[in-house]
Amino acid sequence: MQVTWRDIRAARNTYAALSAACEVAGYDLVPSDSSTGGIICYSLNSINEPRLRSEIRDAPGITIVGGPHASACYREVAEYADYVIVGEGERTLPRLLDAIRTGSSGRIPGVATKDGYTPVDHTVLLDAYPCFSRIKGYLEISRGCPHACAYCQTPRLFGNRMRHRGIDAIAASAAHISDARFVTPNALAYGSDGRRPRLDKVEALFRRLKKNRIWFGTFPSEVRPEWVTDEALDLICTYTAGRKIHFGGQSGSDRILSMIRRGHTRSDVEVAVDRAVSHGLLPIVDMIVGFPGESEEDLGMTIDLIRQITRYGKVHLHYFMPLPGTPLASSTPVQLPASAEKIFGSLALSGRLTGYWTEPERRFLNPTGDTEEI
Ligand code: SF4
Predict the structure, then answer these.
(1) Per the domain annotation, does 287 fall within a domain?
(2) Banded pLDDT at 1 (limits 50, 70, 90)
(3) Which residues of 11-44 are buried (b: 16+ CB within 10 A; e: fewer)?
(4) Are residues 64 and 160 in the same domain?
(5) Ligand 1 pocket by C-beta < 6 Å: which residues?
(6) Residue 227 class from Cβ within 10 Å (0-12 exposed, 13-18 middle, 19+ buried)?
(7) For the whole model, what pTM was predicted?
(8) Ligand 1 atom with least separation from CA of 262
């Protein structure tokens, strides 16, 4: 049975992971840049969904759609797709393919159609699946997040308990690549409950991957600022190849940080920057502007923090975007004053600030119209 995977840049790592899971079940996901094939699979985020909606609706074959947007808006997506996978796909996609192949009419847990949704009956055990197989990707070491940042889809998609892939399983996948890059909501939380660090586990992982060049704490394995301790940075400096540390700061206003439930303060960000610099690492800090309710005073504090960070490191700036399935889904971003855009433009010209703070869609777009991960 031919199964096509619609090649979407934003979903390349999802393709690597699902292709490995489907391979175990006897299905080969064949990549394509169009809607060809008897069965075609899509992974949608909220940026590429409007662009791909009509393609899915008009596809000649059976369409299966998953990803963060489809999971959050499954009723809406089921209006134009045949099947919607809600949440994780490693077990659900092969189950659904089995049902289509055998003509079974039973409902599949974790799948929505126009006729309704059958709630999922499992949580994926990462060790039950390889990180990737023929299609190489990043090493996904953890899933789920106990934090509840109001703008973020991760805990809504993967749950609020951290699950980790075992070191043996990670090493088995890492043996097929030279550079080890990781996917995790907080790299320094590897092996922990996401609240209390287990740096012994992080070190054990590093030791085990001694044949790989390790990139840790940079995209796509950023960390939280309050986890940037001297001990953690010592480990990163000792075992990894990178000389950068990437973490989320998000706002310079403690009022906004509290409103978005970040669970850290501005001071945590300032301390993390100092610690990174004193370890000889370049701090790269994600910041967001335009949060709903962000006052002129809040924005001023964020600009002040951005200026402070860019004296020593870099800032990656985003304009707030309400994502479906999050507590801020129906909120309205605050428009930026021209004066702020001028400041950001000037910092960007000096190379100390990157990102997109005027048109949120552009941060997901590359010149070919494909999207980056959100
Ligand atoms: S932004 Fe990071 S820390 Fe916050 S909920 Fe999302 S994954 Fe967790």
Answers:
(1) yes
(2) confident
(3) bbbbbbbbbbbbbeeebebeeeeebebebbbbbb
(4) no
(5) 145, 147-149, 152, 154-155, 185, 224
(6) buried
(7) 0.93
(8) 4
Last residue of a domain, one of 118, 147, 178: 118
144 three-class SS: coil
Write down the pLDDT at residue 64.
98
Mean pLDDT over residues 252-260, rounded? Answer: 98
Number of domains in the chain: 2
Residues in the chain: 374
Given ligand 1 and candidates 141, 143, 145, which is best to mutate, with the most ligand atoms within 8 Å of its CB? Answer: 145
Pocket probe for ligand 1: among 141, 142, 147, 182, the residue whose CB has the most ligand atoms within 8 Å is 147
Distance CA 169, CA 301 (A): 44
Residue 368 in any domain: the answer is: no
Please write the tens of the pLDDT for every residue from 149-199.
Answer: 999 999 999 999 999 999 999 999 999 999 999 999 999 999 999 999 999
User: Does any domain span residue 315?
Assistant: yes
- Could you tell me the distance, in angstroms and rounded to a whole number, from the CA of residue 88 to the centre of ligand 1? 17
- pLDDT the model gives residue 357: 86
Q: Is residue 316 part of a domain?
A: yes
Q: pLDDT > 70: what percent of the chain?
A: 96
* Domain's final residue, options 72, 97, 118: 118
Q: Which residues make Cβ contacts (< 8 Å) with residue 225, sequence separation at least 6? A: 247, 248, 249, 264, 268, 269, 271, 272, 285
| Beta pairing class for 139-140 and 179-183 | parallel
CA angle 61, 95, 77 (to 5 degrees): 50
* Other CB atoms within 10 A of residue 372 CB: 14
C-alpha–C-alpha distance, residues 198 and 206, integer Å: 13
Q: How far is the CA of 54 from the centre of ligand 1 (A)?
A: 32
Helix %, strand %, coil % for the chain, to 5?
35, 20, 45
Residue 20 has pLDDT above 70, yes or no: yes
**Residue identifier of the C-alpha nearest atom 6 of ligand 1:** 152
Report the pLDDT averaged over residues 326-330. 97
Rounded to an integer, the average pLDDT of 360-366 is 50
User: Could you tell which of 140, 152, 268, 316 is best to mutate to test the pocket of ligand 1, judged by most ligand atoms within 8 Å of the CB?
Assistant: 152
